[in-house]
Design goal:
The complex is a heterodimer of chains A (261) and B (353).
Chain A lengths: L1 H31 L15 H42 L3 H14 L2 H12 L3 H5 L1 H26 L2 H10 L4 H12 L1 H17 L2 H6 L7 H11 L2 H31 L1
Helix pairs in contact in A: 1-12, 2-6, 2-9, 2-12, 3-6, 6-9, 7-8, 9-12, 11-12
Chain B lengths: L10 E9 L5 E10 L4 E5 L6 H9 L9 E4 L2 E2 L10 E4 L11 H11 L4 H14 L15 H14 L4 E5 L7 H18 L2 E6 L2 H7 L2 E6 L2 E6 L1 H6 L4 H6 L4 E8 L2 E4 L2 E4 L8 E6 L4 E5 L5 E10 L3 E7 L6 E6 L9 E6 L4 E4 L4
Parallel strand pairs in B: 3-8, 3-9, 6-7, 7-8
Antiparallel strand pairs in B: 1-2, 1-4, 4-5, 9-10, 11-12, 11-14, 12-13, 14-20, 15-19, 16-17, 16-19, 17-18
Helix pairs in contact in B: 2-3, 2-4, 3-4
The chains are: A mainly alpha (261), B alpha+beta (353).
The complex binds adenosine-5'-triphosphate and magnesium ion.
């Protein structure tokens, strides 16, 4: 009897917390398909806001994906070899380097952005192009890639595998591509999903770095909240969810599979 | 072409020491010569620097300044491992989990640009040689320890290395399998005729596999010799005790005889000795009736092992003496017996350790 009471209490508490978090999201999304939010859902359901957002922000959404995948490309090309080098040759430096590249997670995005603007603001072309935002995103997401790759490296004894391949005559590049990377796939995939998701959702840093012609999804969202009807902003949220939720689900499935090993 | 054949290189390790960056002195400068086709075993307790020596020869570790590694007289010291043409079997095997058994074995050949067909036939040959037929398409994770060991060996010899390096390849296996594989490995190494350097801390393995054995102690080479030499003529107490069972007796000497509580034992050697450290192997001591040998003692215990029995004798020396007696003798604990030891079975060791 007492157990049941406790269980019911816990269940209620959990549901309340979940509702507290989920209801705003649902409201926000439903607002995006409502004809008039102030009159409520009874005013009718429509996709006009969604289309309006698409018309206005298709470019922004596209750019967001371009930046996310470019960030992914850079973090893969730089981060995976960096993790390998740190793991095999790092020695006592590897800890220090790891700390340093992790700093951007702890430092507020605004501060990083400011530093970037101070340093590169003078290079007009660069400052105005999306590459400037890319730079910020790479700095911000790199530690996630490096760390998740290093995490697998420490579980599969990459150093011995590397030495094994070397003893068979493989050059450093061949063993990296033929042995190290294939055995680091779980970490690389996890890191990749993380990088893409973070880049798509990043606001702080991007807000400081963006120009009217270089906006990303979250910046567009802020923009539409600030300057348009609530329904439009909500439709935007809806699009944002549709874009990012499959990524989050993939990430979760991935984490589960790793746990199950 | 056949994988079996003479393709070994000779190795010279010249004053190679190793001090790690953290200051650990793993190896004192040592010099070793390994002949073409020879099997040399590095033997010693844990932490004595066996792996370090092997890794220096492999090219995975650089010796301290002044050290040199030569293959067939050619200085290889600064040549990286991938250009040394050495086959290596790691203690943990280091098999690639992302590849099948066949791909693992063929990896070195692929790197060398050997065509698909030749590669397949060489892999098939090695699969047969190492008794793993039927496992070619398995993943590494689907293999037992013994099977992994064979794959690792096949992979290492597939490239026809000039030198084969093995770091405790059998240690990860259980005792029965270890014994079986040891014999198999021995036949294979003889058949391949590659110069082989084999690291182990198991003296039985060292005896069976080695043409010569290097006994190491705390980064220093204690003795180099054939298995017989290091067994019968150890040059130090450490080697005597590390290789097989040994009775070490420290006693005063008079007229070429050890003066012991249980009598006198004649020894060879310098007649002017006044004190000696003597080593006597348990199986060289004969159990006879008390009184028919100059030395006698009391049986403390008898353990019947099957092919022989181990008797512990008290009262003969200041310490107990272990004797390996034939299994036909029926002597019991408490009985007084004579110990018959031929003078040339007594090996005098330098005093100290
Ligand atoms: N990379 C390293 N850095 C610092 N010290 C090391 C390193 N590798 C080995 N050592 C030390 O050097 C000494 C010799 O090590 P080594 O691995 O050669 O011993 P071993 O004879 O192979 O022992 P085992 O039988 O346990 O494998 C040990 O004291 C070990 O702790
Ligand atoms: Mg070792």
């Amino acid at each position: 009897m007492r157990d049941r009471l406790i269980f019911t209490g816990q269940l209620l508490f959990t549901l309340t917390v979940a509702a507290f978090l989920v209801v705003p999201a649902i409201l926000s999304i439903s607002a995006g398909v409502t004809v008039n939010y102030f009159r409520g859902i009874s005013s009718g359901v429509t996709l006009q806001w969604v289309f309006q957002v698409w018309d206005l922000y298709a470019g922004t959404i596209l750019l967001s994906f371009v930046i996310a995948f470019a960030t992914l490309a850079v973090t893969l090309l730089v981060g995976v070899p960096a993790a390998y080098a740190l793991h095999t040759h790092g020695g006592r430096w590897s800890r220090i380097v790891e700390e340093v590249i992790t700093l951007p997670i702890a430092i507020p995005g605004l501060a990083i952005a400011l530093a970037l603007i101070l340093t590169y603001g003078g290079f007009g072309e660069f400052r105005r192009s999306w590459l400037f935002i890319l730079t910020g995103h790479v700095i911000f997401t790199m530690p996630f890639m490096v760390r998740s790759v290093m995490a697998v490296f420490s579980t599969v004894d990459i150093k011995t595998l590397d030495e094994g391949a070397a003893s068979l005559g493989a050059s450093p590049v061949r063993r990296f591509l033929g042995v190290i990377v294939p055995n680091a796939v779980p970490g690389i995939l996890a890191g990749a999903l993380m990088v893409v998701t973070l880049s798509l959702g990043e606001f702080n840093l991007t807000w400081m770095l963006h120009t009217p012609s270089t906006k990303t999804l979250p910046i567009g969202l802020a923009d539409s909240y600030a300057s348009m009807r609530l329904e439009v902003a909500s439709a935007y949220t809806l699009i944002f969810f549709v874009m990012i939720i499959p990524l989050l689900v993939a990430m979760q499935m991935f984490a589960d599979r790793e746990q199950g090993r | 072409m056949n994988v079996i054949g003479d393709h070994g290189a000779s190795v010279r390790v010249e004053t190679c020491g190793k001090t790690f960056v953290d200051g650990t002195r793993a190896l004192e400068p040592a010099t070793l010569d390994i002949a073409r086709g020879e099997t040399l075993v590095l033997l010693g307790p844990s932490g004595c620097g066996k792996t370090t020596m092997l890794r220096i020869i492999a090219g995975l570790e650089l010796p301290d300044v002044g050290g040199k590694v030569l293959f067939d007289g050619k200085d290889m010291t600064s040549v990286p491992i991938e250009k040394r043409n050495v086959g290596m079997v790691f203690q943990s095997y280091a098999l690639f989990p992302n590849m099948t058994v066949a791909d693992n074995i063929g990896y070195g050949l692929k790197i060398r640009g050997v065509g698909k067909h030749e590669r397949a036939s060489r892999v098939a040959e090695l699969v047969a040689l190492t008794n793993i037929t039927g496992l070619e398409n398995r993943r590494i994770t689907q293999l037992s320890g013994g099977q992994r060991q064979r794959v690792a060996l096949a992979r290492a010899v597939a490239i026809r290395p000039g030198i084969l390096l093995l770091d405790e390849p059998l240690t990860a296996l259980d005792a029965a399998l270890r014994d079986r594989l040891r014999g198999e490995l021995n036949r294979l190494l003889r058949a391949l005729g590659i110069t082989t350097i084999y690291v182990t801390h198991d003296q039985a393995e060292a005896m069976e596999l080695g043409d010569r054995v290097v006994v190491m102690q705390k980064g220093v080479i204690a003795q180099v010799g054939t298995p017989r030499e290091i067994y019968f003529e150890p040059n130090s107490r450490f080697v005597a005790e590390f290789i097989g069972a040994a009775n070490i007796i420290e006693a005063p000497v008079e007229n070429g005889q050890l003066l012991l509580p249980g009598g006198r034992q004649p020894i060879g050697g310098d007649a002017n000795l006044t004190t000696a450290v003597a080593m006597i192997r348990p199986e060289t001591i004969g159990i006879v009736a008390a009184g028919s040998a100059p030395l006698s003692g009391t049986i403390d215990s008898v353990s019947f092992i099957g092919d022989r029995q181990r008797m512990i004798i008290g009262g003969a020396s200041s310490k107990i003496i272990a004797v390996d007696a034939p299994n036909t003798i029926t002597a019991k604990a408490g009985e007084r017996v004579g110990l018959l030891i031929a003078p040339d079975a007594v090996r005098l060791l330098p005093p100290g350790n």
